[in-house]
Amino acid sequence: MEVSHSVKERTIAENSLVILLQGLRGRVTTVDLRDETTATGRVTNVDAFMNVRLAEVTFTDRQGAVSHLDELFVTGRNVRYVHIPDEVDIRATMEQQLQAIHRVRYFGGRDKGRKEFPRAKHK
Amino acid sequence: GGAMSFLRRFPPPAEGVRHQQPDTEAVLAGRSLGAGTLYIAESRLTWLENSGVGFSLDYPTISLHAVSRDLSAYPWEHLYVMVNARFEEETKEAPVGEGEEEEDDSDDDAEPIAEFRFVPSDKSALEAMFAAMCECQALHPDPDDEDSDNDYEGEEYDVEAHELEHGDIPSFYTYEEGLSHLTAEGQATLERLEGMLAQSVSSQYNMAGVRTDDSIREYEDGMEVDIAPVVAGQFEDAEVDH
């Protein structure tokens, strides 16, 4: 489970519903943009500012014309709505994301067992 | 049509350039602006034609960007950038003559949109261009965010920052780093404390912070601490509850 390496972003995420969107990583989702266009693709990443990165995207513009994009990055400001897939258990997803954040916070990052506090040599 | 009025001559960005792609054509609303170099810098996105004129886009104005390899939609693989701004050849008073700039509703209150395409001669560079744009875009979060609760102080203990000595929260300074952060007053305080420590080392009954005849100095900041000199056996009579 990937968690942001930024303290600020983790804090923002655990205090907002962005944490739910971050749990959609890997899932195919439809994002409605502010300008009435829509993008359907696999979520690669959602950051604390709700910037959404999608892969293998079907993009529908305001006139209804469809095109395909390998990758798409939409700024959070321009996201109107994110469709949560039906099969997603919203509560479980949020809890898993919170647990991932807490694991990083209390037990270190990728290296398990790394001491949380600096060793005595610093004193 | 005439020359694109928004094109200017200026030097390319000098710092924070995450990616630079030469031999890249810029296209606005289906109209080619020529061949040049795209600079994806942390401060802004800049494209400069080989002749030296070009334009810059600020990340907050960029709604989205994408890699398009769908040749049925557009005949060349490119980096697509949608901008929340108006870039026109004609003056604003003139009615929109070119079909590609016409918006569906043509409402005055509809958001202006400009579609740029950056077509590199090296198609394999598109991934790197896309990634660089994502990184730079993330550096410019929306200041108008409705959620005003984004003032998180970050009480979380950043394990990585404290181990690697960088991160969002300043942690431990090395000696040299710490010195460089001192103000003049801080420097004076440091010297005074070091002087006191030097005194205390020479006499085992002196503690740092205890003023003795040797360590009395002028204290510029007026901070004077009166501590009674330590007398051996001073606390012998005290009742101790353990």
* CATH architectural name of chain A: Roll
Distance between the termini of chain B: 92 Å
* CATH level-four homologous superfamily name of one domain in chain B: Pleckstrin-homology domain (PH domain)/Phosphotyrosine-binding domain (PTB)
**SS class of chain B:** alpha+beta
Helix fraction of chain A, binned, reads 25-40%
Shape of chain A: elongated
InterPro entries (chain B): ICln, ICln/Lot5/Saf5, PH-like_dom_sf
Main location (chain B): cytoplasm
Family (chain B): Belongs to the pICln (TC 1.A.47) family.
GO cellular component, one term (chain B): pICln-Sm protein complex
Summarize the structure.
Chain A has helices spanning 7-14, 18-22, 90-107; strands at 28-33, 38-46, 52-60, 66-74, 79-82. With 123 residues, chain A is α+β, with helices and mostly antiparallel strands. Chain A binds chain B through residues 5-8, 10-12, 15-16, 33-35, 47, 49, 51, 53, 57, 59, 62-63, 67-78, 104-105, 108-109, 114, 116-118, 122, and chain B through 62-70, 72-74, 80, 84, 104, 111, 113, 126-127, 130, 133-134, 137-138, 141-142, 144-145, 147, 149-150, 152-163, 167-169, 172.
Describe the secondary-structure layout:
The complex is a heterodimer of chains A (123) and B (242).
Chain A: H1 7-14, H2 18-22, E1 28-33, E2 38-46, E3 52-60, E4 66-74, E5 79-82, H3 90-107
Antiparallel strand pairs in A: 1-2, 1-5, 2-3, 3-4
Chain B: E1 8-9, E2 17-28, E3 31-41, E4 45-49, E5 53-57, E6 62-68, E7 78-83, E8 114-120, H1 126-138, H2 159-164, H3 175-180, H4 184-202
Antiparallel strand pairs in B: 1-5, 2-3, 2-8, 3-4, 4-5, 6-7, 7-8
Q: What does this 3D model show about the protein?
A:
The complex is a heterodimer of chains A (123) and B (242). By secondary structure, chain A is an alpha+beta fold. Chain A has one domain: SH3 type barrels. Chain A is 25% helix and 30% strand. Chain A has three helices and five strands. Chain A has helices spanning 7-14, 18-22, 90-107; strands spanning 28-33, 38-46, 52-60, 66-74, 79-82. Chain A has a five-stranded antiparallel sheet. The radius of gyration of chain A is 17 Å and the shape is elongated. By secondary structure, chain B is an alpha+beta fold. Chain B has a domain at 5-88 and 111-138: PH-domain like, CATH 2.30.29.30. In chain B, 18% of the residues lie in helices and 23% in strands. Chain B is built from four helices and eight strands. Chain B has helices spanning 126-138, 159-164, 175-180, 184-202, and strands spanning 8-9, 17-28, 31-41, 45-49, 53-57, 62-68, 78-83, 114-120. Chain B has an eight-stranded antiparallel sheet. The longest helix of chain B is centred in the last third of the chain and has 19 residues, at 184-202. Chain B is elongated, with a radius of gyration of 32 Å. The termini of chain B are far apart. The model of chain B is unreliable at 90-105 (pLDDT under 50). Classes of the chains: A alpha+beta (123), B alpha+beta (242). Strand 4 of chain A pairs antiparallel with strand 6 (62-68) of chain B. Chain B: InterPro entries: ICln, ICln/Lot5/Saf5, PH-like_dom_sf. Chain B: It is found in: Cytoplasm, Cytoskeleton; Cytoplasm, Cytosol; Nucleus. Chain B: One of its GO terms (cellular component) is plasma membrane.
